[in-house]
Amino acid sequence: MTPREIAVVALLAGGVFFAIVAVVGLVRLPDLYTRAHSTSKSETLGAVLTLAAVTIAFDGGLSTVKTALLLLFMFITNPTAAHAIVRAAAEQGIDPWTEDAEGGEQ
Amino acid sequence: MTFVEDVLLTAAAVFVLTSLVGVFRIVRGPTMPDRVIAVNVVGSNVVIVIALLAAAIGEPGALDIALVYALLNFLLSIAISKFTVERGGVL
């Protein structure tokens, strides 16, 4: 294994791990705001790590530049989109999940 | 088929599987913003899968498709969030 292959495999393992974490949070967490938190952070990190692996897998040239620009674009726009959706939801009057609403004590 | 290509294809398969799990939230999301967030996640996964396949099968032209798809994915989220609050005031 060359150092380049080791770097690709390590970055891909990290990216896949964080993508799985994001989807588990998307399915299991209780309300919109916690789901948006899970996806906007974990999914962005997973995307950035995976695209970094693809950047290394391409051996130089225009493809590497394109993938790096795609990485930068997703790093900026993914949290921005999640923020816009959550802000729209808050202005629509969707309440966040609390212990009381779940029927707990108090 | 070298080792790196195998690993890239495996990662693409895992991303497709996580997208299929995310479809659960699109179908069953209680509110509309839940569905938009899930659609956004699936779209990001599609962009990543296209990039992984471009590297795995040696087709760099597919990266252009991934760039346009990422742009449309962002535009969808912004448009829906503006449209639901201001009733199309941004348009």
TrEMBL record, chain A:
One Pfam family hit: PhaG_MnhG_YufB
Keyword list, A-Z: Membrane, Transmembrane, Transmembrane helix
Transmembrane segments: 6-27, 48-76
Source organism, top-level taxon: Archaea
Name used for this protein in its record: Monovalent cation/H(+) antiporter subunit G
InterPro entries cross-referenced by the UniProt entry: PhaG_MnhG_YufB
Organism: Halogeometricum salsisoli
Automatic annotation (TrEMBL), chain B:
Main location: membrane
Topology of this chain in the membrane: Multi-pass membrane protein
Subcellular location: Cell membrane
Stretch forming the signal peptide: none
UniProt entry keywords in alphabetical sequence: Cell membrane, Membrane, Transmembrane, Transmembrane helix, Transport
Transmembrane segments: 6-24, 36-57, 63-85
Stored PANTHER family: NA(+)/H(+) ANTIPORTER SUBUNIT F1 (PTHR34702), NA(+)_H(+) ANTIPORTER SUBUNIT F (PTHR34702:SF1)
Protein name: Cation:proton antiporter
Native source organism of the sequence: Halogeometricum salsisoli
